[in-house]
Write a structure and sequence with these properties.
By secondary structure, the chain is α/β, with parallel strands linked by helices. The protein has 2 domains: 134 residues, Rossmann fold (3-Layer(aba) Sandwich), CATH 3.40.50; 71 residues, Orthogonal Bundle (Arc Repressor Mutant, subunit A), CATH 1.10.10. 56% of the residues lie in helices and 14% in strands. Strand 5, helix 5 and strand 6 form a beta-alpha-beta unit. Helix 2 packs parallel to helix 3.
Length: 219
């Protein structure tokens, strides 16, 4: 985000975790922590009051948990991208968060550089899933799908061109636009155009939803 810092709200009920995240993020001159919240209700208010670009949202919080806060955040601060903070023990909750429009998730023990990268990716409009858990989460979700869900996904994907399906399949693998372009011998800009077209055709809000649909369809 050239010209102005990325405005971040940190929502977690543990003060030490918030302090650690703040310290990491503020080491990047392009990121500004504009607010903190110890519960989901406060997170919604902080995101709205501070016009946050990105909200780092814990799942287990008092008053209003992260999953319940997510739809309220999307209504109250539609310009904010929500990245869910989680532990391995909360995988199923993460799946629900992604299906409801979360921009991705991070494990709480993630490396500092990855945390900064996730915030930057979310602010740029891309979804971010922690590489350490992406494959497990997507495969776990795919195994739990009912046959009817898979059939619906195949029907939606059928509307895509062959090249669009190729790009979608690579989204399902978690590849970036640049890496997908290398695989398909396309420029990064061309892949980005294909991704935008795919999201519109499939009525998906972000790359994460498209990736899950790709797995549902068996790509």
């Amino acid at each position: 985000m050239a010209g102005q810092p990325i405005r971040v709200v940190i929502a977690d009920d543990e003060p030490l975790i918030r302090a650690g995240i703040r310290m990491i993020l503020t080491s990047d001159p392009d990121i500004q922590v504009v607010g903190e919240a110890a519960d989901g209700r406060a997170a919604v208010e902080a995101a709205r009051a501070h016009a946050a670009d990105v909200v780092l949202l814990d799942i287990q919080m008092p008053v209003l948990d992260g999953l319940s806060a997510l739809p309220e955040l999307r209504r109250a601060a539609p310009g904010a991208r929500v990245v869910v903070l989680t532990t391995f023990g909360e995988r199923e909750n993460v799946l629900r968060a992604l299906e409801h429009g979360g921009a991705g998730f991070l494990l709480k023990d993630t490396a500092p550089a990855e945390l900064i990268g996730a915030v930057r990716a979310a602010a740029a409009g891309d979804a971010y899933l922690s590489p350490a858990a992406t494959r497990h989460v997507v495969e776990r979700l795919a195994k739990g799908r009912e046959a009817a869900r898979a059939e619906e996904a195949r029907g939606r994907v059928a509307a895509l061109s062959e090249k669009e399906r190729d790009v979608l399949a690579l989204l399902g693998e978690g590849l970036s636009n640049a890496d997908a372009g290398k695989r398909l011998h396309m420029s990064e800009g061309t892949v980005k155009t294909y991704v935008s077209r795919i999201l519109a055709k499939l009525d998906c809000e972000n790359r994460v939803q498209a990736a899950l649909l790709a797995r549902d369809a068996g790509l």
